[in-house]
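Ligand-bound model needed. manganese (II) ion.
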Amino acid sequence: MLVVMKNDATKEQVQAVIEEIEKMGFRGIPMPGAERTAVCIVGNKGPVDDYRLLMLDGVKEAIPVTKPFKLVSKETKPESTVIIIGNVKIGAGEIVVMAGPCAVESEKQCLTIAQSVKKSGAKIFRGGAFKPRTSPYSFQGLGEDGLKILARVRQETGLLIVTEATDNASIDLVEQYADIIQIGARNMQNYSLLRRAGQASKPILLKRGLAATIDELLMSAEYIMSEGNHQIILCERGIRTFTNTTRNTLDLSAIPSIKELSHLPIIVDPSHAAGRREFVIPLSKAAVAVGADGLIVEVHNDPAHALSDGAQSLYLEQFAQLMIEIKQYRK
Ligand code: PEP
Ligand code: MN
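Prediction:
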């Protein structure tokens, strides 16, 4: 249930609604919007007695929310959410591109890539310091030393930093160093990590799980938002597939589907979807054409010697080409 306030409702009237909802045994979460303020009721199992709320001053109407995800639903907030970090706006019509290596390997590697992708037009630098690897014997990332390198990249280039937190221990550190905290595909349903992300002071990049439905992705975003963090960027990164020509199958229909269901911005990771650099540019164009708000792309200065995901990493010149080629699809 969504309690919609009148345009001239005061803060005190919104607070009175929240308190009445709490008396009923539920939680009321304010959803400020450009057009109106509404209070979303969460925690109720069945219908809510809206009469008690409609009687309160400043209340315009009460409307049912039909979806199990409430706070992230477009029913609750019809206008699109724009994530603003510094001078970068995600979800405001511009295609925001995040680029960098799969993993932070060294300061020299990161600075070389960062300077190049910045010149090509990337606004955000990506690179994992904590790496969730399929094999325990693979490179696991540099940990806090990697985060320090990322902080240096931001200092040197002015690029914002997105990097992954793999568990409740690493998120404390990642929150200190990053501008955006990434929750990876393998952790999309790690509910304690999602709750912790919901208490973080930084925006969250939530990647779709390897075999997760759109509803499950949105329910995971709901976990984060229900803890108070409304700054969430969703990411389609390809789903498990039976084909063996690509690493995953990029679900392009996820983008319009999510735009229909949620107010949150959605970006696309063509690198993990394809697993092969040859497909990254065509998939990026397709992603932009179907309405993605941005891209997250793996780029390496020496992919042949990358410590992870070299085969899907673009060469620096290829990334420059990608930035030129996607321009015509922006409109
Ligand atoms: C990554 O972006 O570094 C990554 C590991 O991606 P995913 O979680 O989508 O596999
Ligand atoms: Mn990778």
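The pocket of manganese (II) ion (ligand 2) is lined by residues 102, 272, 298, 308-309 (CB under 6 Å).
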